[in-house]
Amino acid sequence: IGQKIGTGPVRVINDPAEMERVQPGDVLVADMTDPNWEPVMKRAAAIVTNRGGRTCHAAIIARELGVPAVVGCGDATDLLKDGTLVTVSCAEGDEGRIYDGLLETEITEVRRGEMPPIDVKIMMNVGNPQLAFEFAQIPNGGVGLARLEFIINNNIGVHPKAILDYPQVDSDLKKAVESVARGHASPRAFYVDKLAEGIATIAAAFYPKP
């Protein structure tokens, strides 16, 4: 989640009662988070969870705080040992990475004021709603192309045919669809809601630009 890199000692928290163990600059490692965790999340250099996805509580709060997060790891609380120094990178594509040790990183800064004016509008191709608000901070003329197939992949994660053919699909696929659609009236309602959410997120990020 995000495009940043965080480093620090691992702090594995298995019980909310232990949250005070997390010090500023620690890498918070937990099974998952909820609103009760937010005060300690603000102190973390990075967040790693066993469970969750791009729209889970940890992911949403990490975006708001600008803290790199790797969610849905499965067994992070078992693999990462308390006190170990690690580097959490969300700057290498869609998948976050966790490295042993404190790796050297390089930051390149570009001053907006040094960019020359041009006579044409430069519009963006946007396919990941989760990055829309970050992309909107870059000088732009709006969204020239919203890649629907990427929105489906990033925001929904289910092939349209699995939704259309839901009553006829095999039991394993049906269980997978039911898992992601939990909390919605039906798989089709889930698909429509998430697609609308993805498109609306991009539109909101770039408003009032086209």
What topology does this entry show?
Blueprint: E1 5-13, E2 27-30, H1 38-41, E3 46-49, H2 57-65, E4 69-70, H3 76-79, E5 85-89, E6 97-100, E7 124-126, H4 132-135, E8 143-146, H5 148-156, H6 160-164, H7 171-180, H8 187-206
Parallel strand pairs: 1-2, 2-3, 3-4, 7-8
Antiparallel strand pairs: 1-5, 5-6
Task: Provide a descriptive summary of the structure in words.
This protein is of the alpha/beta class and 210 residues long. It folds into two domains: 5-100, 3-Layer(bba) Sandwich (Glucose Oxidase, domain 1); 118-206, no CATH class. It is built from eight helices and eight strands. The protein has helices spanning 38-41, 57-65, 76-79, 132-135, 148-156, 160-164, 171-180, 187-206; strands at 5-13, 27-30, 46-49, 69-70, 85-89, 97-100, 124-126, 143-146. Strands 4-3-2-1-5-6 form a six-stranded mixed β-sheet, covered by helices on one side. It has a two-stranded parallel sheet with strand order 7-8. α5 (148-156) crosses α8. The radius of gyration is 19 Å and the shape is flat.
